[in-house]
Structure formats: structure tokens, C-alpha cells
Amino acid sequence: MLATDQYLMVGVVLFGIGVIGFLTRRNVIVLLMCIELMINGAGLAFVSFCRQTGSLEGQVFVLFAMVIAAVEIAVALSIVLLVFRNRATLDVDEMEVLKW
Q1: Staple 44 to which of 11, 54, 55, 97, CB 3.0 to 4.6 Å?
Q2: pLDDT value at position 98?
Q3: Which residues pair with 91 in a beta bridge?
């Protein structure tokens, strides 16, 4: 069995990769994947703390967070597809908010 600090280290690495990817990339699809990495890293931290304390509240919270993240990605991808149809680009710098 792995110790709690090892799970936390993996969660921090996942969250860090997500933050670095979010700050350096300009493609909307990659930004959405980086957000998912950050959510998964935070969820792993919650589950590892709950494993250490023996409670289930954090695991239930992570389950709800994963459901909300899945819905968020579905809505975001539909918006990205509509923007791509009109703009023919996925670059964040070339998209202007509410200016068609």
C-alpha cells in the first residue's frame, strides 16, 4: 500500500502539469484538458485525505466534482464547436469575446 504523502505527491504533480499547461498553451481543447488535470489532482488529494481519516465525505465530494466536470466539458465542447464553425480557429488569442 502507498502512503498518503505519495498520493498527495501524484495529486500535486497532476495539478502542476495542469497549471503549467493552462498558462502556456493557447488551444481551447488543450486548455480544457488542463482544467480536467487540475480537477483530477485536487480530487486525488481529497480521496487521499479521506483514506487517511477513514471517512467517506471527501469521496462523495469528488464524485460530485467529477460529474460537474463532465457536464462542464460537454457544454464547453459544444461552445467550442460553434465558435470553430464561425471563426475557423481554436486559438484563444484570435478569439474575441462577444464580437462577431
Answers
A1: 11
A2: 54
A3: 27
Give Cα separations from 78 to 40, 48, 89 (angstroms). 22, 33, 15
Q: How many angstroms separate the CA atoms of 29 and 31, rounded?
A: 5
How far is residue 79's CA from residue 95's CA, in Å, rounded to a whole number?
A: 13
Supply the pTM of this predicted model. Answer: 0.83
Number of domains in the chain: 1
CATH of the domain at 48: 1.10.287.3510
Backbone angles phi, psi at 2, to 5 degrees: -85, 150
**How far is CA 32 from each of CA 18, 20, 50, 76, 78, rounded to the nearest angstrom?**
10, 13, 27, 8, 12
